[in-house]
UniProtKB/TrEMBL annotation:
Organism of provenance: Amycolatopsis acidicola
Entry-linked InterPro entries: Cro/C1-type_HTH, Lambda_DNA-bd_dom_sf, MLTR_LBD
Gene3D superfamilies, alphabetized: 3.30.450.180, lambda repressor-like DNA-binding domains (1.10.260.40)
A Pfam short name: HTH_31
Lineage summary: Bacteria, Bacillati, Actinomycetota, Actinomycetes, Pseudonocardiales
Protein name, per record: Helix-turn-helix domain-containing protein
GO molecular function: DNA binding
Length: 277
């Protein structure tokens, strides 16, 4: 099979249009002339390596796609892509493990660009209990775990609004990256059944400031909200695509339940017995 490499000007134009910027908007932001930008996009001018990187930065193109822009322009990639186990990423691995361990007794996971599970702390077991072993096998995908009928979705008490929130996040990622693998993942997630309809618009209930995950564990109803952390100013493709999602108790009852659950040594236990009070 022959792979056809599209011209760098065409790729840059598509990224500009994806960001809903005019040539004037981008030329002002990147401090180049509109005429030169037009010549680059139409192939009448060949951008320098520095110009490709400057335009990629102002278009907020992910590092992986910036490398593709450089290759299309005839230059070597600027950003390395190393496995997380690489010795050069030792400090990053240590930081990730510190965040995961420090977040106990609350769940926290590390995912890559495609939502594959990279690492997790022990408390995450309270969320994944009961999921089919096939969904937990490496490389486990946290979206499949969340939305597949054999995953944790049967235990979720607000499946419609939680599903809508997850799919909205994935849609934004697809729009940001134009990645065909993420697009396929979005279509797969949309095809999964849901026990209740997704809300057309998120209308918060009284006192709510976020979409919670409400999930049953044994006889208890737990409620979580989450935050997502990424590495600042990464220069490695792998690090740029890692995200740490940390779950926090949305009410005191959930926090107390988790503390008792961990203290009772239930981390990783495959059961749903009530936590001792």
């Amino acid at each position: 099979m022959t792979t056809i490499q599209r011209p760098v000007g065409e790729l840059l134009r598509q990224w500009r249009e994806r960001r809903r910027l005019s040539q004037l908007d981008l030329s002002i932001s990147a401090e180049i002339s509109t005429r030169h930008l037009s010549f680059v996009e139409t192939g009448r001018a060949t951008p320098s390596r520095a110009m490709v990187l400057r335009l990629g930065e102002h278009l907020e193109v992910p590092l992986r796609e910036q490398n593709q822009l450089l290759l299309a322009a005839g230059y070597a990639p600027a950003y390395q892509e190393r496995k997380l186990a690489d010795p050069d990423l030792g400090a990053a691995r240590a930081a990730v493990r510190q965040v995961l361990a420090g977040h106990e007794p609350y769940p926290a996971v590390v995912v890559d660009r495609y939502w594959n599970l990279v690492d997790a702390n022990g408390s995450t077991a309270i969320l994944t209990e009961g999921a089919a072993p096939a969904l937990l096998a490496e490389p486990a995908n946290v979206l499949r775990l969340a939305l597949h009928p054999d995953g944790i979705s049967p235990r979720v008490l607000n499946p419609g609004e939680w599903r809508a929130d997850l799919l909205a996040r994935l849609r934004r990622q697809v729009e940001s990256t134009a990645d065909p693998e993420l697009t396929a993942l979005l279509e797969e997630m949309r095809a999964y059944p849901c026990a209740e309809p997704e809300p057309e618009g998120q209308i918060p209930g009284r006192g709510e400031i976020f979409v919670p995950l409400r999930i049953r564990h044994g006889d208890a109803e737990l409620s979580f909200f989450s935050t997502v952390a990424t590495f600042g100013a990464p220069l490695d493709v792998t690090l740029s695509e890692l995200a740490i999602e940390s779950f926090y108790p949305a009410d005191e009852a959930t926090g107390a339940y988790l503390r008792r659950w961990v203290a009772a040594g239930r981390i990783g236990a495959e059961h749903t017995e009530p936590v001792p009070t």
